[in-house]
């Protein structure tokens, strides 16, 4: 899914594995092509951001979005994580999605189907009102295409109260598992059910705010939301 801010995808080619991103365990599940990585990122909504402050590791879950060759996340200007990353601290950015429970004929070979992305680098502060507004619009349009134009514009104070960072997608890898169990050959004769239980992320019917102004109808763009 491309953002609505017009950034698009420059598509400079596949990601080149580095010492940190080279998949060593089950390397056949590695994904380095840009389109495959971006498809996973565009399907997710929540990332986990890893960083270290004064020798203490932290991992913070937060919402994110992609615009071109960057991912963005934001929060309060009082956020210790955002202030720390804005000063150029190294960051590990991860996204993962559960797609199914893989039930094998043995506990050892039972697994999960998943899609995951990991990226390393240094985040940068998004500064300037115009860049902040463009990034926030991209986030809104990624979730609910067509909604941004109907919203009250952010105030100057709201923009000041919001800190935003972006991470260039340069050192990146994905890992994906799909398909049925891979049992030991002799176990296929066992009287044990095996297969996959799919797991999906779906949106439910919209629920009106209790203080919704009378006469305000549900917008059509709610039908265009895509999650997962």
Q: Would you give an account of this structure?
A:
- This protein is α+β, with helices and mostly antiparallel strands and 228 residues long.
- The protein has one domain: Electron Transport, Fmn-binding Protein, Chain A (Pnp Oxidase, Chain A, Roll).
- Helices cover 16% and strands 32% of the residues.
- The strands form 2 sheets. Strands 1, 2, 3, 6, 7, 10 and 11 form a 7-stranded antiparallel beta sheet that branches. The chain has a 4-stranded antiparallel beta sheet with strand order 4-5-9-8, with helices on both faces.
- Strand 4 and strand 5 form a beta hairpin.
- It starts with 29 loop residues before the first strand and ends in a 30-residue tail after the last strand.
- The N terminus is likely disordered.
Summary, kept brief:
This protein is α+β, with helices and mostly antiparallel strands and 228 residues long. Helices cover 16% and strands 32% of the residues. Strands 1, 2, 3, 6, 7, 10 and 11 form a 7-stranded antiparallel β-sheet that branches.
What's the end-to-end separation, in Å?
Answer: 12 Å
- Total beta strands: 11
Total number of domains = 1
Helix and strand succession? EHEEEEHEEEHHEEE
Q: What's the total helix number?
A: 4
Major sheet characteristics: 7 strands, antiparallel
The whole-number mean of residue pLDDT values reads 91
Given the C-alpha coordinates, what overall shape results? globular
CATH class: Mainly Beta
Tell me the β content.
Answer: 25-35%
CATH superfamily: Electron Transport, Fmn-binding Protein, Chain A
